[in-house]
Prior knowledge:
With 189 residues, the protein is mainly beta. It has two domains: 2-131; 134-189, no CATH class. It has strands spanning 2-9, 14-16, 18-22, 25-31, 40-48, 51-60, 65-71, 75-82, 92-94, 106-111, 114-121, 134-138, 144-149, 158-161, 167-170, 173-177, 187-188. The chain is globular. Mean pLDDT is 62; it is low at 4-24, 89-105 and 122-131.
Amino acid sequence: MNKLSLTIVGLFVSLLSFTQVTCEEVSVSFEGFVDIGIVLPLTWTLSTDGAIIQDGTVMLGSGMNESIELCLEDGCYNLSLTSPLPISEADWQLILGLAGSTDIPYTIVVDGNTAILEFGINDTCGEVDCPTSLTYWASDVCGCYVFQLGDANAAASVVWDFGDGTQFEGGTIVEHCFQNDGGQVISAT
């Protein structure tokens, strides 16, 4: 078993921090820091292979925080977060460079008020087949983003599908501009 600390900060802007050490429990922390003057429920569901492992609701407002403790075996997991207010893909950031932390590959899919975070806890033999990490950041052009496959071979040829009807073959780092607002499911093969 591995210990995975996952910190989700805010109702609109969430910062994800992962720390992996050898033990049996996983700590998931939710912290609200966006001051909107109200307390809102954030519903979470942890699942693997479509089976719900555990779920619940935390109440968050500015300066509030809640933690849950989970026990996870090696494998791939989905942590689905649902807010009463719309969630944006730009509301998530991965915090890197923390003392003792390990960059765990993850993927986030956002659709309306729900965000799904996919991550894996791998065994030392590497027998778990988890998704390649897909990270992104806004470019200097409005509506444009840079996407990167974090643990893929830099020389790999990748077929990108941006969920808006645009597909093309490129490298592991590409830039794409979306013509319309809304959630998109992005895939790279």
